[in-house]
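Q: I'm building a small set of examples for a reading group on sequence design. Run inverse folding on the following structure and report the sequence directly after it, with nothing in between.
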């Protein structure tokens, strides 16, 4: 049996007091999450932060009403019961993940939180026979399910169309600077710089296993080098390019992926089959780079394709000539 599972209670087995206690702790957790979101956004997206501040205040009011009802019905001592104590109950993502969530994802997470809470209160209202408690839980279910309207009201108050568009553009720009730009640089370096050693080895030895080892070594080495270089040369504070760790990971991983793409075919023992597939992979990689440049960096597609394909072709030709010589 999985440790911890046996100690959980089924929701259907909870008493009315325990249901109220669970609702109180859930509202407290949700208010904290909203405030964490607000703090995460306050520096760069002040208007959205105010929206989450308002939603946290709403959760505080819900908790206050629940505590008052518990005091009237059961007294001052509230049982300690949380979401993780109930089998199958919805769970929230750890609050620290807010540090890594983009703006649109945070908004979507908040919407999901309200839907989950609304379903909980609907179920909880069905579990009590006390009229006043049932009414309170029903009202909270309606409030949670109606929070989309409340969120829209808060957004209209703090987040007009121009401000939201400005924040969305800022979020997109940050995504480009932190993930796309270093990832694209890594993919280009991995795809192009490893062409020469891989194909030089291939044509010089016509040994697929040796070629794969050289390709894997070149790809992993280039990935480590690019990752550390990206992370070390800019801490992101002045440039606004974001976390150096994130940029380093994006650059390092994509560099390795770019090189391994045309190294992996050499796991195939037959030389010309492996080489043909590797060439096809190179073609796909180069066109993917051109598409990314066009899609995210707003580079005209034909110009991006000409630059990438021409550069790749020259490096490939150099490797083939050196290996064939």
């Amino acid at each position: 049996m999985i440790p911890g599972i046996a100690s959980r209670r089924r929701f259907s087995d909870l008493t009315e007091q325990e249901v109220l206690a669970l609702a109180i702790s859930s509202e407290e957790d949700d208010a904290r999450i909203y405030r964490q979101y607000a703090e995460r956004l306050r520096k760069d997206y002040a208007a959205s932060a105010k929206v989450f501040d308002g939603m946290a205040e709403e959760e505080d009011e819900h908790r206050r009403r629940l505590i008052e009802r518990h005091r009237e019905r059961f007294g001052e001592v509230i049982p300690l019961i949380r979401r993780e104590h109930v089998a199958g109950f919805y769970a929230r993502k750890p609050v620290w993940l807010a540090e890594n969530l983009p703006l649109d994802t945070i908004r979507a997470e908040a919407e999901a939180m309200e839907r989950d809470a609304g379903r909980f209160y609907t179920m909880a209202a069905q579990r009590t026979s006390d009229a006043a408690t049932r009414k309170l839980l029903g009202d909270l279910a309606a409030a949670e399910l109606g929070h989309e309207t409340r969120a829209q009201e808060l957004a209209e108050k703090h987040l007009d169309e121009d401000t939201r568009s400005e924040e969305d553009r800022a979020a997109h720009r940050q995504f480009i600077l932190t993930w796309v730009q270093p990832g694209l640089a890594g993919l280009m370096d991995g795809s192009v710089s490893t062409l020469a050693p891989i194909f030089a080895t291939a044509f010089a030895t016509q040994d697929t296993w040796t070629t794969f080892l050289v390709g894997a070594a070149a790809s992993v080495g280039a990935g480590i080098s690019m990752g550390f270089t990206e992370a070390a040369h800019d801490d992101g504070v002045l440039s606004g390019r974001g976390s150096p760790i994130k940029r380093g990971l994006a650059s390092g991983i994509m560099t390795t992926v770019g090189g391994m793409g045309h190294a992996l075919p050499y796991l195939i023992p037959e030389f010309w089959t492996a080489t043909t597939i590797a060439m096809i992979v190179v073609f796909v990689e180069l066109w993917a780079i051109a598409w990314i440049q066009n899609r995210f960096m707003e580079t005209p597609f034909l110009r991006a394709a000409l630059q990438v394909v021409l550069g790749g072709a020259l490096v490939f030709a150099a490797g083939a000539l050196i290996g064939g010589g």
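The chain has a mean pLDDT of 80.
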